[in-house]
Sequence to fold (326 residues):
Amino acid sequence: MIRAQTILGSVIALLGVTAVVLVFRTPAEVAPARSFTSSQQCKECHAQEHAEWSASQHAHSWLNPDVRALSNDFANTDCIDCHAPQEIYSTGIGARVLPRASRRAEGVDCIACHALPDGGVAGTKDNPAAPCRPQAMASLKSVDHCAGCHDQHKTVSQWRETQYAAQGIGCVECHMPARADGSGHDHTMHGGHSLETVRKAVTLVAERSKGLVRVALTNSGAGHHFPTDERSRAADLWWRPVAPQGAPAESWRHLWRFRSPYRHEVDLVDTLLPSAATKEVWVDDPASLGAVEVALTYKRTPYWKDPLRPDPETEAEFVHRVVLQP
Ligand code: HEC
Ligand code: HEC
Ligand code: HEC
Ligand code: HEC
Ligand code: HEC
Fold:
């Protein structure tokens, strides 16, 4: 009897120890599979990435009023593809993306860029213990990752012809800089909505030469044409004489527009400025002999009123402005 009780006790104790070991071993090796239905859920553990992404155009791609207007509120269903995309690791890196049916308001979200078909996420190292189960994927940082959506207007093809491509400086190196605290990479992905980023793309020079004014714009900082991607983007060069003290301001004169026309604009030619290229314009006008100012402006759509016309007093935010003394 005593012996039987002892054996039974030992068996129970052994089972208990085994159970305790199982309970404590499980989480250390493989996190319970967790499936994600919204990018809101990633915020719980990746607040920094979520805050940056929320301020990005990617987060607004479905609700963006300009996109809504141009797509007739997505009645043009072709527009859904990239503005509310399926997971790109399922449709294929670099392949044409497909439209998704759910959580469209989240636009180009964490799940679209990171989710893997097996339930994990694309990361920089394998980490099966983390709840989202990251796997090291070299493709995450590659230009192909961006190409599925950003080569429709040849931004990636333009990049392939540049010095940056030759040096292995891809989209992520410029558009996702490392945060100062070393915690990861900025997900804001600035572009044409940030004047500061547009300023970094080009250098404006104005100088007197052979009795004329030479105006030169160089694409010194973009890893593709300037402007790029959206055909609606336009950059314009202007000049005007500086009026003598007390005299009314002169109006601005248009010099050049950098833009890729829409297909129906058959009378326009493509004037995008390739990476490292310089566009020169010469001002041959008696009025340019005195002090002059030269400016570059940028518009996200050509239908916006020109910032410098018709009212020359408009305080436009210049991308660059140079004043040249006689
Ligand atoms: C419950 C917490 C939690 C949630 C929710 C979560 N993650 Fe993670 N994630 C982690 C932890 C912990 C790590 C590993 C530590 C690290 O790299 O930050 C990680 C790592 C990652 C990495 C890899 C980082 C690298 O450098 O390799 C990516 C990418 C990632 N998570 C994306 C996501 C996405 C996208 C979602 C939402 C679909 C998500 N995570 C949801 C906790 C979480
Ligand atoms: C192949 C992917 C793709 C498809 C399909 C697509 N877009 Fe886009 N769209 C983009 C990308 C990428 C950008 C960002 C380009 C840039 O910043 O220059 C963008 C930007 C825009 C913008 C500018 C938003 C802003 O605030 O500056 C508008 C407007 C727009 N798209 C409208 C449309 C419409 C309308 C359709 C359907 C006719 C459409 N898009 C289809 C990828 C796509
Ligand atoms: C447009 C695609 C895209 C979107 C949207 C996106 N990511 Fe990323 N993410 C990347 C790329 C590319 C990297 C790799 C950056 C690198 O290593 O240079 C990355 C890196 C990360 C990392 C590793 C740490 C770091 O910051 O480098 C985490 C964690 C992460 N993303 C989480 C998220 C979460 C959470 C969201 C949504 C709030 C999100 N990402 C949205 C493309 C994206
Ligand atoms: C699944 C499609 C998709 C992928 C993948 C994607 N993007 Fe985008 N991206 C978009 C769309 C759509 C927009 C325009 C959103 C809007 O303005 O409504 C956009 C806008 C942008 C902008 C413009 C911001 C501005 O100020 O106008 C930049 C820069 C950008 N993306 C960089 C990247 C980079 C770098 C990658 C690769 C790491 C990437 N994107 C991957 C769809 C995508
Ligand atoms: C050497 C740095 C650099 C590299 C490399 C680079 N870019 Fe850019 N990108 C810029 C700068 C600067 C701007 C701002 C000028 C502009 O908007 O045209 C910009 C603008 C953009 C925009 C916004 C255009 C708009 O209309 O708002 C998109 C989209 C973009 N880049 C995508 C990409 C993609 C995709 C790649 C990789 C193939 C890439 N970039 C590589 C520097 C870079």
